[in-house]
Amino acid sequence: MMVDINRIHQPPVPTMPDFIKSHSGQILGVVSCLDRVILMGTIPDICYPEAMTRLLYGKNVRIFDYTKFVEPMRETIRQNAERVAKEAGCQIEFIRSKNFRKEERIQKILETRGTQPGLVHVFSAMETCTSYQPWHDKASGKTFLRHDSGKCLHYYFYFIHEHYGLCYLRVPTWAPFRLQFYFNGHNLLANQLRRKGLGFEMIDNAFVQLDDAPQAQQLADKIDVKRLHRDLDRIAAQYCPVVSEFASGYHWSLMQVEYATDLIFAKQEELAPLYDHISRTAIHAVKADNVATFLGRKITTNCTAEVGSDFHTRVEGTRIKHHLGSASVKMYDKFGRVLRIETTTSDVSHFKHHRTVEHRDGTSTIQLAPLKKSIYSLPALIGLMRASNDRYLDFLTNLDDPTVEIKKLEKISRPAEDEGGRRHRGLNLFHGDDLDLFQIIVRGEFNITGFQSRDLRKHLPSKSSSQIGRMLKRLRVHGLLKKIGCRYKYYLTQLGRTVTMTALKLREIVIIPALRPADAQ
Prior knowledge:
By secondary structure, the chain is an alpha+beta fold. It folds into 3 domains: 8-36 and 184-224 and 257-399, no CATH class; 48-177, no CATH class; 403-520, Orthogonal Bundle (Arc Repressor Mutant, subunit A). The protein contains 16 helices and 19 strands. It has helices at 18-22, 49-58, 66-87, 102-113, 185-196, 213-221, 225-239, 268-285, 288-294, 378-400, 403-412, 432-441, 444-449, 453-459, 465-477, 494-520; strands at residues 27-42, 92-94, 118-137, 142-161, 165-172, 179-184, 200-203, 206-210, 251-265, 307-313, 318-324, 327-334, 338-345, 352-358, 364-370, 416-417, 423-424, 481-484, 489-492. It is globular.
């Protein structure tokens, strides 16, 4: 099914985060691109029980002959797998152990085979699959199919594609023949760089050197979804030939997507102490509303999604991960040279953007709505996930070196004069009413949508409207708030975000821990 890409509205091009600017002397290059991408292929003609039921009735096949109808297709897929494996000089390897790692086996084969395009290897395994069960409802007298689950033989075709690099296609041998396709965006970008004649050095799935990082970023930003759709259809026809039995063909949707921003450092000794500091500080500084803000959401009273942070020490190094429901943002180092910020989602509808929404009455409007799961949402998803990475990098700026921000804190603690010459006392972001006020206005939902004085009254019920008005006036005089148009909505300025987050982090990470031993005594 083809979709008009122009109907999908993309977010604006992001600006460079301050964290990257502050370390520009140590960073050789920065590139943001897709990492791990898993797509799902479904056949609309048979992808749910009612559709398969209609198909059987249309072909004059009895519902209870469903298995007889599907069995020849299973044999077609099996014979095709044996044929393509033989033509490529491969053997189909059956997997018996759950602990078997297909990626390790593939890497060993590639060491001797090389990386030329073509089929690399084929695995087979008995795995769980979706299926249908014939059913006769005595009450209504109707016979139909209903959902069922079981196990069937699956084939994993690992191959090197001239455009996408190392990929695999997972093909079940039983209806509804739901496919799973994997590729890595770093391999895609590497092939684009080769065609352009741009030099690079790559280890695993990370670039450790780029001759022209800005040009690499331009290539990474241009994802040709129409070409991807055509390539997927060709791959499906090659490894799952039963698709020719169905007029609708395959519909491709986004199942899991990772988007990485890599900061390539010149030397390991420059990244190591920086990463150690910010990773161990972030685990204490990042709160639930911060996680929601990174991922473009806000925490409300109705929010049921699990939110949290994890810090893990791995063989390769350490990793910090912040998650909200089906989405997460994580930070880790690769090979001591690359600082990676990566946003991941297993449900792209977690993200919202402005798009055309069609209503049941036939009308359509442009409004904020969850992202569609179609592969044609991929350009918009890339923009949203890159913005998530950039927000996380902005947050890290103050964790890195708060010296300059501390000087700004000292400045706002002194009195300031408004345009009429009236003096307003300084702000103390570590104690009392000022601390309470700032803990409210840095909440995740206010960071995204702004706030009004009535929002503050809900969280500060002991304060009158006039008292809150004077608070807002002080913040504006000190340059920490800006008012938007005639909507009486306020947002933190860049100075406001900087000094507020610095103060709250110093309080959480330095001041409170320093007081705990005394409290214990």
